[in-house]
């Protein structure tokens, strides 16, 4: 997963017309490490349809405050610089739940494109 280190990198990454999912994590977060083993497979599964980026919330606290990132890992789908949907919960996220979120993000993006 491409890691973004600056707000400028983040804004450029989410500003395009392709569907982008930002994954907000932290080094100390056990639930973030739980998803690490299967996320490369999830990325490969959606290759060509979704671009994934990782942001360490501790590296960009002002951005996380602006986006109301309170729990991690948090997943936010963007297109054209606008937030489409997000997946945040206080519970550990399973691969199936993440895939369901990505599928919903694709559906929302496709519906917007048709509108």
Concise summary:
Helices cover 42% and strands 23% of the residues.
Structure in words:
With 115 residues, this protein is α/β, with parallel strands linked by helices. The chain has a single domain, classed as 3-Layer(aba) Sandwich (Glutaredoxin). 42% of the residues lie in helices and 23% in strands. The chain is built from five helices and five strands. It has helices at residues 7-15, 30-35, 39-45, 61-66, 95-114; strands at 2-4, 20-25, 51-56, 74-79, 82-87. A five-stranded mixed sheet has the order 1-3-2-4-5, sandwiched between helices. Strand 4 and strand 5 form a beta hairpin. The chain is globular, with a radius of gyration of 13 Å. The N and C termini lie far apart (31 Å). The model has no long low-confidence stretch (mean pLDDT 94).
Give the secondary structure arrangement, pairings included.
Elements: E1 2-4, H1 7-15, E2 20-25, H2 30-35, H3 39-45, E3 51-56, H4 61-66, E4 74-79, E5 82-87, H5 95-114
Parallel strand pairs: 1-3, 2-3
Antiparallel strand pairs: 2-4, 4-5
């Amino acid at each position: 997963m491409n890691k973004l280190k600056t707000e400028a990198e983040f804004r450029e990454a989410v500003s395009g017309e392709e569907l982008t999912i930002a994954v907000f994590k932290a080094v100390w977060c056990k639930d973030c490490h739980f998803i690490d083993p299967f996320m490369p497979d999830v990325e490969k599964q959606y290759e060509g349809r979704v671009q994934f980026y990782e942001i360490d919330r501790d590296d960009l606290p002002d951005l996380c405050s602006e986006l109301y990132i309170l729990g991690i890992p948090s997943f936010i789908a963007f297109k054209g610089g606008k937030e489409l949907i997000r997946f945040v919960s206080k519970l550990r996220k399973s691969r199936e739940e993440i895939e369901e979120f990505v599928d919903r993000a694709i559906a929302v993006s496709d519906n917007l494109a048709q509108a």
